[in-house]
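Consider a concrete sample entry:
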Amino acid sequence: QGYAIWIPLLEAVRARRLPSARVIGCVITVVIGVGILAGVDLRSMRLGRGEFEAILCSMVFAAQILWAERPGYAANRVGLIAVLTFAVATVAFMPVVALTAPSVGALVALYADPWHVTLLIGLAIGSTGLGLLMMFRYQRYVGATAATIIYCSEPIFVAGFAFFMPAMLSSLLAVNYANETLTRELLIGGGLIIAANVAMQIRPRRSDPAKKIDINHE
């Protein structure tokens, strides 16, 4: 969720003005909420290779978020764009798999298991495909900054599914996978993320100029 920081900064540079106090407050709130859910400990946190790679990935995703709402793409066929996104990702990951897989036999064993393939297809279509489709179709109606705060609610949905799905998968995959339990961190972190989303969607009511009374004419 590092993009929650980059998007407002990039939007501020593009608009040449500082973000509003509401945006700054929502970003700080959602980052704290995500940090609590992730169990971040500032006293022991160190920036190593993995952390820098994650930051770089968040910057790339921030660029995708900004690019998705460009007016020139409004007429695009979002279904086709989502399919092409999958195709490009597949081609990009093939050399990574070839370089990091322990052996060819490990790949064969993975794709020979029907349950693993079913889970892979479910994640590809349900989580990634549907998410990309909704992102390309609807993000431009809320704006990049508001969409960024919404995307940060992903850990809440993950936690919600984790209350019942692990036990279901355990019986199917024959693995010891316990359900998530409700914790104080989940309540506090999730509550902050929800509060940031609600605050981001609240707009101050604008008075109707036609209803204003002209005191001089009165």
Summary: Residues 207-218 have pLDDT under 50 and may be disordered.
